[in-house]
Amino acid sequence: MLYNRVESIGRVASEIQALVPDASIGIGHGKMKEQELEDVIMDFSEGAFDVLVSTTIIESGMDIPNVNTMIVLDADRFGLAQLYQLRGRVGRSGRMAYAYLMYRRDRNLSEVAEKRLRAIRDFTEFGSGFRIAMKDLELRGAGNILGTEQSGHMLNIGYELYCKLLEEAVDRLQGREVLPQAEETAFSLSIPALIPQYYIEDEVLRLQMYKKIAMIAGEEDQSDVVDEMLDRFGDIPKDTMNLIRISKIRSQASRLGVREISQNGHKLILKLWETTRFAEGVIPRLASAYGERIRFGGGSDPWIRVTVSEADNTKASLEELEQFFRTALSEQKLS
After folding, report:
1. Contact 27, 2 (CB under 8 A)
2. From CA 250, how far away is CA 259, in angstroms rounded?
3. For residue range 96-133, what is the model confidence (pLDDT) as tens digits?
4. Per-residue pLDDT tens for 287-313?
5. What DSSP designation does 126 have?
6. Which long-range contacts (CB under 8 A, 24 or more apart) does 92-97 make?
7. What are the residues whose beta carbons fall under 8 Å from the beta carbon of 102, sequence distance 6 or more?
8. Could you give the dihedral angle defined by the CA atoms of residues 229, 232, 236 and 237, in that order, rounded to the nearest 10 degrees?
9. Which residues contact 212 (CB under 8 A, 6 or more apart)?
């Protein structure tokens, strides 16, 4: 029995004794003297009493094969990784083991607490530690891994950018050359773009596909990802297809020197970096292809504006952007 309140652990032990008068009960917690605690653990290990009521002091380092049942009171107060560690204290032999995670009947669980308990219930197979860790990261956030602040969420910067920044930092520390990266393009159109949970239920697989989509650089990469997703997961939802197309568009826009893509009614607006230099023939080619539907702006805040035939239409906007970059990058050699 695990109860993580030293001041009232004696009362809980007395309540258990009243429920099962024939059972012998011991108590263990971190405020006991070292020798006293060691004696309690050794006696329990040797079968001197039936039930150990303890705090989370048993979380790590305990290996008592003959223990096959654990009851965790107020389990909603523990973190997911901590619950996983506690659950691992039972089932350490060939005997069937049970872990009961309890919470108070009148207590309203928070959304995060409910997700933690559901995850520890679902991930029971051997080797599920990695999946538990990924779920814990999703619920708590990645935080500032190299600093003092442990808050925030990986999704604030995106998994791919997070890995890229971490890889660059390691390269610098090891004295390797870090090549300059193309500037990221902000995509400000209100278009639903995600991988729904119902399409890929496994969190690890979903994260892997997000990474593959983020690495799309052109038509061939897009085709490879689409083929893989069709083969592994079936028909691709519209929102996921939007994500794939947007990833390719952002990669192409970055190569062209576009810092932001936005939309205002019928107009697609591409803001450029001040230092952007188009290869010879790009602007004439765009002007010829779009005619009156395209406008160019220079100065310290250069831009390109393209009129879309249907205002605020997701399909028309994405198709227009795809056609724009096919035209702009055809046979282009960036200078």
Report:
1. no
2. 9
3. 888 888 888 877 777 778 887 887 777 766 556 666 66
4. 888 888 899 888 778 889 988 866 556
5. T
6. 92/63, 92/64, 92/65, 92/67, 93/65, 93/66, 93/68, 95/65, 95/66, 95/68, 96/68, 97/67, 97/68, 97/69, 97/70
7. 71, 72, 73, 74, 75
8. -120
9. 225, 228
Percent of the chain as helix, strand, coil, to the nearest 5: 45, 10, 40
CA distance 56 to 5: 9
User: Which neighbouring-strand residues pair with 269?
Assistant: 262, 305
pLDDT, tens digit, 9 for 90 and up, residues 184-218: 788 888 888 889 989 998 877 888 888 889 888 88
Q: What residue ranges define each of the domains in the chain, with the CATH number in brackets?
A: 6-129 (3.40.50.300), 141-181 (no CATH), 186-329 (3.90.1150.50)
Strand partners, 272: 258
Check the CA dihedral 148-153-158-159 and report its sign.
positive
Residue with tokens 């891994």: 145
Q: How far apart are CA 144 and CA 225, in angstroms?
A: 31
Q: Residue 122, Cβ neighbours under 10 Å: how many?
A: 12
What pLDDT shows up at residue 136? 60
pTM tops 0.70, yes or no: no
User: What sign does the CA torsion over 263, 269, 274, 279 have?
Assistant: positive
CB 29 within 8 A of CB 55: yes
